[in-house]
Target: Sucrose-phosphate synthase
Amino acid sequence: MIKMLVCDFDGTINGGPSLGVDQFSAYLDTQPELHFIIATGRTLPSIKEGLTTHNYPKPRCIISDIGTRINYDYDLIADERWQHQLQTRWNKSAIQTALQDITFLGECNPSHQGDYKITFEGQLDHKQYSTIATALEQHSIDVDITYSHDWFLDITPKGINKASAIHYIMEKYNLAAEEICVAGDSANDTSMLTMPGINAILVANHYNEVAHLSGLNHVYTSNASHAEGVLEGLIYWQNNAVEKMVK
Ligand SMILES: [Mg+2]
Model:
């Protein structure tokens, strides 16, 4: 039985027609036992604002800043334990120093920066990406670098991503991977879409950067886009779970 649905926001449940969001929300209303969770690269203020733009279901938990922040319930209580463990793995000024001579780094919009996330905006080619990775390595800075939507370059503490945050929540609520469904559209979803045992949904409008995941057994690629595609995938995995129980 699927007990938790974890959705990326931009390009996954957001970005399509509002009718699709309405259908998605109406279906979740019929599933009171299913926990709905957002996992986004956005900062918390940005996702809170984003969720007001359509009739989105209210999430029980928001994983924001690509996994570096977890907040629960409707009043969005921060998970202090999660935040605390990131402090020892993060030195923002050292990262800034390591990258100070790189001229092609894009804009660092203040509204996209997190306590444990640095985001640059702008298109990068493979060589430029490698130059950034090398500069960080040369300064012995152990971080994760994610380039997604062919625009956002996110630097986060090593090993902290949407998947590690979901794993933490799974342990907290005592859930198994097969009880969870995750949905995404771009490279910053790769960690969660490839979690062992998970039921994954790739919406039809996914970016080319994750197209290779559609060949995986545990990934359902929807025919529909955005929220409608998530709904299609969720129903697929729910039916699949029922079939497994019957067998
Ligand atoms: Mg996305």
Summary: The chain has two domains: 4-84+160-246, 89-157. The chain has a mean pLDDT of 95.
